Amino acid sequence: MPGSFKEIKYKMKENMIVRVSKTPLLNGDAVDAKREELRQYFHQTYSLYEALFEPITSDEAYFIRPEPLRHPLIFYFGHTATFFVNKLVLGKYIDERLNRSLESMFAIGVDEMSWDDLNQANYDWPSVQTTRAYRHKVRGIVDEVISSMPLTLPITQDQPAWVILMGIEHERIHLETSSVIIRMLSLDYLKPHPLWEPCRISAAAPKNTLLPVAGGCVTLGRGDNADTYGWDNEYGSKTVEVDSFHASQYLVSNEEFLAFVEAGGYQQLRLWSEEGASWLNYTKASIPHFWVKRNGKYFQRNLLDEIELPLNWPVEVNYLEANAFCHWKAEQTGRFIRLPTEAEWMQLRNMIDTDQPYWDEAPGNLNLEYFASSCPVDHFETNGFYDITGNVWQWTESPIDGYPGFEVHPLYDDFSAPTFDGKHNIFTGGSWISTGNEALKFSRYAFRRHFFQHAGFRYIEATTKEVPVEPVNTYETDDLVVQYLEFHYGDSYFGVANYPVACIETLLAKLPAINTDKALDLGCSVGRASFELAKTFSHVDAIDFSARFIQHGHQLQETGQSRFSIPTEGELVAFKETSLEQLGYTKEGKERIHFAQGDAHNLKPQFSGYDLIFCGNLIDRLHDPKRFLNEVHSRMNSGSYLVLTSPYTWLEDYTDKSNWLGGVKVNGENFSTLDGLKETLSQRFEFIEALDVPFVIRETARKFQHSVAQMSLWKLKD
Amino acid sequence: MPGSFKEIKYKMKENMIVRVSKTPLLNGDAVDAKREELRQYFHQTYSLYEALFEPITSDEAYFIRPEPLRHPLIFYFGHTATFFVNKLVLGKYIDERLNRSLESMFAIGVDEMSWDDLNQANYDWPSVQTTRAYRHKVRGIVDEVISSMPLTLPITQDQPAWVILMGIEHERIHLETSSVIIRMLSLDYLKPHPLWEPCRISAAAPKNTLLPVAGGCVTLGRGDNADTYGWDNEYGSKTVEVDSFHASQYLVSNEEFLAFVEAGGYQQLRLWSEEGASWLNYTKASIPHFWVKRNGKYFQRNLLDEIELPLNWPVEVNYLEANAFCHWKAEQTGRFIRLPTEAEWMQLRNMIDTDQPYWDEAPGNLNLEYFASSCPVDHFETNGFYDITGNVWQWTESPIDGYPGFEVHPLYDDFSAPTFDGKHNIFTGGSWISTGNEALKFSRYAFRRHFFQHAGFRYIEATTKEVPVEPVNTYETDDLVVQYLEFHYGDSYFGVANYPVACIETLLAKLPAINTDKALDLGCSVGRASFELAKTFSHVDAIDFSARFIQHGHQLQETGQSRFSIPTEGELVAFKETSLEQLGYTKEGKERIHFAQGDAHNLKPQFSGYDLIFCGNLIDRLHDPKRFLNEVHSRMNSGSYLVLTSPYTWLEDYTDKSNWLGGVKVNGENFSTLDGLKETLSQRFEFIEALDVPFVIRETARKFQHSVAQMSLWKLKD
């Protein structure tokens, strides 16, 4: 029925006033109907995005830069179309680009979702007319792909339909972020528009009070089999124990925030975090970004108009301002006032028992179902709380991070991963213009803490000073550390078994009678052998000279996971994650390990009494291996074992040649490292056996170090 | 019968005057008899060596250094005993050393056979008495080993008996070299000795004349299955075409050489090679080393006495002096006078139809069968020539080199290999004190050209100026070049097939219809792919940017072989050799290859008209790969193919990031090198296929680079 692109287009124009849509369900029985639903959702999104630009009265406005940290609007106008082309080309769903030069300009911009360093290059932007014509062509291409693509239900991440949804939801993100940029554009360039009618009600704000919220277990994440499109960061699941707390009944209103402003909040640096003070110093801000102060009177800039400061609307600030306000409020009240965490917000959100796309009416000023602006903070109530979702986004204390099991989508591998850096905080709940995926309960978006969006906050009162926020599992990128993380926790290559695991399994098989009280993993690197030893030994000390290696073992022990990006080809990387659970390590086991930084040549006295000392690839990296071998017995129990592995790669960078154990001519004859080990250890140790253990260290997708270590086993003589 | 060491020792004393022995045959029927023959040969050698020191009248003499480039005699006295211990320990035929400290001092010295840089360290030498006691203990140990070792016939290189023979023959070498040092010791420390009776005859020298020697094919080398012990450098075989020449009837006598001295030969630098002039300048020599000029009269120092210059004895000089003499003689006569090559000497030697151990009487002043000194040059005649073997060693023009198939013995891997450096010249024929292996026809010894031994020379007259000496196959030691030689010509590791061969075989299988007139191997490195291509293509150009790589391909083409030492562990190396013949390449094939140094970015115009251009692991090492790919078609025939392989290891050291073909983000998206190849080549080439080809580059015995290259095949569009 809804045949050609032309017909669809016509229908969309008719329906232009229909701002509201729901993100499609992935499942269903009827493929044809789903195909048309996708087509409808695509065109509605595409048209709605174009409609956002309709209030602009002059093409000139597309080329100025109202927000210096952003490209001009022309980029965003073209960008959402180019995104479809890029992902379809990357997925090999279309063969050719439309316009290499335009697509190059519209491809990377300043994607608020992932980074915010502005490229200062001069762009030779195309005209609005050219860009509009380009958008038109892309609309036709995407429509054709929707018509011709294979489709089975449910839609899975490997289908072209997923890429279509990705493009649509990406455009819906830009619907919101472009609206923020337009909100910064001079009103001289804008006219009112029937589609973008703001709320026209305002009054004094209600008095905000703190209401109790019961604690409990909160499960975050949409799980792995959700029924709607989701971004990579939403998948997986994480259960968090939330203490009881109090939360403010309302979002903080302009009026409530005004008290902070008038109390000199922007001038009192003690209220600001270090980052906040630095931002304040740089911007010289003294009132919220969308406020205007003229002749002693406050106004607020909205999308297409400026009005007297609506006192009962939510204030819109960045995280740093919200955080300073909380500090001030805490000072005023003597209480632990702060922003909620993601989990605390979810505890509130769980009071609402519906979600888009299932609702009939949005439970808040959300999904463009009510206003094209904020509205008073006392309009949408649930259990005595208002605006649990909608109106403006709500900043949280939580830096964004993936849930356990996080995986990137191969066609958009930098959507989230670069934001797992501890510098991007989550906000929740959506704003009046959050639609599609953005309007879902499990949607998660994060920005740098100084960024402005349609975002404000609710504060809570906690029972303790400490903010229950875990450190972010940032992606390790240090080349050497990453090689070792992959070496210890990553994939096998060339059929060679995981080396730390193989070493421990081999040595335990060779030493069945070993006492299993206490082991030392000396030169533990990122720690895999220690986790393996902790399956058998009651206590494992894991020591390495390098803190940058150890911290990953320690982090795995603390958080259960570790993330790293491994080079594939040139500058390209793949994002990897490991978790102890997936590797089969128990909580009980990991707690037997004690990570510590230390020097094999100079260990503290408490590191002794071992039944096993395992030195994996250590001895050829010591500066005085002979001294170490001559002293190590003093840390060992009677009848205990020393196990050494090494490929004997002696290098003067690490060990003066005069200190090499072997691999040298001694009195003119070849003298191997094993000869040297025997010579050095034979007085105190009985040599049991030497055998080969291969290992592979990945450098890139196509380049590996493939080595064969020699393991030697030694029993301490009585 | 000859039971205990004591009995044997007693017997040896009785037989002390028996200086003569023969090196044992390796084969035989009776194991017990062979064991006793070995025991006898050992004790005879050991006692004979000790007897060499008997003329010394004062222990003091053991600790002075008559030859500053050598250790004092005490070292040599202990060294030959320690050598037995070292090799038996290394071969694990005995478990423990006798005396670690003595053996450390006696182990490496200044082994004239392999190097001659003097260690200037101060040694705390043991006393003669201590050393003699040590020698005595070693004699007992070796005797025990001979009694208890397993023995089968024939004796092969992997048997302990081989190590016993190695120690014996080593001691026989030092019998000679120590006699040279004693010859430099002041006569104050020496007394006559019945065992070391010199020749007492001398007179005017006979007039030397040049006699014709017919040319022909000469086969050098003892082959692989000789019946006596041989050093590594004697094995294998090499056939050389020798032109007819004339050779001097006699060795050059003192009288003949005196004419050169008196003609101012030592003062006329034009007669000397560059090396000779440099030596002359350093030593200020004006007469032969063992001559003494006193009050205008010449004398000669022999082992234990000084006599009036015996005019008809052979002059003893180093190679540099012999060479200068020949230049002088050539000037005098206007003829091509020079030293013989090894092959030319062998052509003479072939006139004698016997060899030790088969002869009844030595065919020259050799094997201690006659004098403990030189004797007149006209004493031992064969076919009109005198002293073809014996009297003094005869310097040749040939720097020592292994024959094709050369392999080191694992227990003495540096006996010869370090002398294959172009700086050690062979001398032949043996001297009066050359015994055991030294007295054999196929023995080959070489020294630095400035060294003195009991050595002189015969000169020859050639028909052309050119000296028919091949460049030495020195052992390549450059780490990177060696890695590539092993990569191209060495062993397989981890079951991964030889990479250049696999590449060529794969591409030919994929391109069965290819025209096979002309191929280019661009980035040929050390050339294996070119030899492989030459099996199929009529003409192969092999080009690399690096001359140090290419020279090895070229050398293989020229000489058929290449040698290199690969690191095993630490500073230890293994000696490797490759030969085209062993690899199955024909003379016809290799002559189709033209090696040239060249830059892929700037090839000379003649490099064009190709049916195939193969670039193995090249593109990620070019500084501007795109430019290369955009130009390469101009060198290709219609319907020809371009084949690229690479692991795409882009590094800014080689290629500016802006020039990487891929492995980068392009417009925000991952852009692989294959994407980049397609983008760059698609206008002119049809993409056929891409497939993986693994390869392994060995770094040490336990460390390898294991990579997976992508091969892509492209057909030039018409």
Automatic annotation (TrEMBL), chains A, B:
Record has Oxidoreductase as a keyword: yes
Pathway: Amino-acid biosynthesis; ergothioneine biosynthesis
A Gene Ontology molecular function term of the record: formylglycine-generating oxidase activity
Keywords, alphabetical: Iron, Oxidoreductase
Methyltransferase domain residues: 518-649
Ranges for domain Sulfatase-modifying factor enzyme-like: 209-459
InterPro entries to which the protein is assigned, alphabetical: CTDL_fold, DinB-like, Methyltranfer_dom, OvoA_Cterm, OvoA_Nterm, SAM-dependent_MTases_sf, Sulfatase_Mod_Factor_Kinase, SUMF_dom
Pfam families: DinB_2, FGE-sulfatase, Methyltransf_31
Keyword Oxidoreductase in record: yes
Domain DinB-like: 42-177
Protein name per its UniProtKB record: 5-histidylcysteine sulfoxide synthase/putative 4-mercaptohistidine N1-methyltranferase
